[in-house]
Automatic annotation (TrEMBL):
Residues 180-266 form the Glycosyl transferase family domain. This is Glycosyltransferase involved in cell wall bisynthesis. It comes from Algoriphagus boritolerans DSM 17298 = JCM 18970. It comes from the Bacteria. Keywords: Transferase. The keyword Transferase applies. GO terms for molecular function: glycosyltransferase activity.
Amino acid sequence: MRAAVVNTPTLAYLAILNKDQSPGVYNKILGTIAGAQKNGFSGRIWCDTFSPGFLRRMSEMIINSKEKNLIIRSLCQYNFYLIYAFILARIQGKRIIIDVPTPNRVAIHEIANGNQGVLGKLKSLFYLTVFGPIPYWFTSGVLQYSNESAWFLLGNRSKTKLIGNGIEVSALPVRPKVPKWTGDRLDLICVASLNYWHGLDRLISAISIVNSCDQQLKIYLKIVGKGAVFDQLKSQVEELNLIKYVQFLGFLKGESLYSQYSTAHLGVGSLGLFRKKLNTASELKSREYCAVGIPFITVGEDPDFGKDAKFRIQLSNEESIMDLIQFFKNFKPEQINFSPSEIRAYAVQHLDFSVKIAQILK
């Protein structure tokens, strides 16, 4: 008797990026493939860089790949050039899912305010806005992590899924201890590649006001990471005479990073999503906080965190810092009264890549 042949479903994730410059994105891709394998798929990653000929190489990979399921990281304004490859792949019976990390309505503003020359900006904006929804018409599905505009949803609304980012929970250790609550200091930690939409300037201004008040509780902040606004934030701390309260630790990873989580009562997510014209976002950092077991403050909505996730403290998504000030002035220790294992369990159930890939491929 001949043994039955088992056909293992196949998946490939195709992306154009520099792995060294975007380690977080590449780790997400690795986690996606790991999640697919947990769900019975054989998977592989194909990555190339934005070097001359990248569109031709991406098109050839889409057409010639042996996998039946392709997840393609969106190329934004360049998606238009892939339409022919999409059509051929669909004729071949392949399923194409476009992973859109930033809504196109936001990408328009990022391109307009980017470092490209004037002609380059005009060309990019032309292809993105004029041909906006058309490339997605030839795909099987579109993954979005925030709300998209009606124009880019034209003809794609039924195939577009609002989904939260995933994380490989098992790759992160749960923090072994929680700092003792003494009532006179609240310790915060922010881990980020510092940029203007993180809104740390708002937080630093709020700390300055709260700590200058005649009250027992003082706010302390550790900032882990570097980025475009690093020097600006350091100057702000010095000008406000907050060196005692705000500490810059630079870039940390591994045990050096994880040990810092045990020194803080709260993590700090993005506090300036409005600066990217977003009210809904799926931040990878929020997922890391959840996986290591630390409650955190942030702004805006997140598709993966409902009202039952009390450890995610949502503040106002606006320029005013009054909400931050009132939060610290009226702070109650019950707001951080969660065990690391309790928060971690939420990550396992809702955020792990094995859960996400099942949602994507079902």
